[in-house]
Amino acid sequence: MSSFPLYLLRHGEPEGAGRLIGLTDAPPIAAGIAACADQARNLAAEVLIASDLSRARLAGEAIALATGVPLSIDPRWRELDFGAWDGMAPGDVEGAALARFWDDPDGHAPPGGERWSALVERVSSALGDLAARPTLIVTHGGAMRAALAVLCGFDMHQTWAVDLPYNCLLTLRVWPGATPTAQIAGLYP
To answer: Could you say which residues form the signal peptide (predicted)?
Structure first.
């Protein structure tokens, strides 16, 4: 089966950057939207999808306007839910609890938050629904890491070895199937 390019674009800088912003709908700053539109300018995407959170959705709307590719919204591409920690600065979270989470986000999810495996499961579901066409998804750092886990077989710790700053573009070559696989074709900060 032939492969297709999958472009994962992290949203631009939101208000409150540096905090644990999961489901908090932190709006993007204007420069963040512009930076995302700039990253997407020369992609030949035929499908455009964005998370429903405004920091990704508004960038997706700007890209749709610039490219003429219709935008679909899919909440499965949301960031990890940080529960009680959502919106907090890391320094305001009890240090040992935060360290346990970073070491094992499946076994030590934030209070009332989402386990790593749940994020991987929903991103896997979204990936399974993609058509084999050049696709751009405007999403979040956690969802991008989950896609690397699903498509490249990275474990959770390996996904953190990849720096994914705001408005970075991760390009994958995907081979669809019952168990899709991919290789990293580029990372553009």
So the answer is: none
